[in-house]
Amino acid sequence: MSKELSKNNPPVFEQIKQTDVAGNEWWSARDLSKVMEYSEYRHFKPVIDKAKEACKNSGQQVKDHFEEFLEMVKIGSGAERPMEDGIKLSRYACYLIVQNADPAKEVVALGQTYFAVQTRIQEIQQMQTYQQLKTEDEKRLFLRKEMFEHNKQLAAAAKNAGVIEPLDYAIFQNHGYMGLYGGLDAKGIHKRMGLKKTENILDHMGSTELAANLFRATQTEEKLKRENIKGKQKANQTHYEVGKKVRKTIQELGGTMPEDLPAADSIKKIEKKDSPKKLKPKK
User: Does the chain have fewer CB atoms within 10 Å around its N or its C terminus?
Assistant: First the structure.
């Protein structure tokens, strides 16, 4: 990785992103290989092939995410020459590549978090339902529902890893919160929000904070499954590490730390307001 890239504030993966005339973002596979510290492009090609296979297996069209093109590469004296093996990568393609790259490299671990979070953001933004949402209340309702569903899936993945008892699951959840909230557990977040004992912290999160927690939950679930993690301690550590990496990504993007976001009114009020009014029974 070049020092010029790594010393700047934006994530290095964001710095090498390019945009075509239509405004579509893309990454050069050759640039990505250099950032991910592969000495030669030919050593990076097997990783690309694995990512293509994963793309195919996920039901996606490979050509939509891996586009071959004639790439102009700089050589000595500032001159350029065409290379026929250039590939334009979508954000999803980059995500698949970092998932199949050498996990021992620190930059690969950073890339896995960055592209996982950014791909999830893109998925939500591209959802037809989400695109139609106009207000903060509508976005909160949508994300709170997503959070509810993914928490069930996270609980199932944690159970498979060995987190069985309710108390163990509470500890598991706290590890995720502590990673994301800079050491604060659920009780600490609850206190910081100034909530009553009976109030749920998720019900008082705005859309930005809900999105951050949704990323934490979905990525932990995937990591538990993908790496077949077993044992309560390993599951707890995994949840903490994912939360911490999501926090770091927010920081790199210049976002507000979740514990510094203001508490919102209870989402129950919004649900009650938006639900159809019940007809009073006739006397």
Answer: C
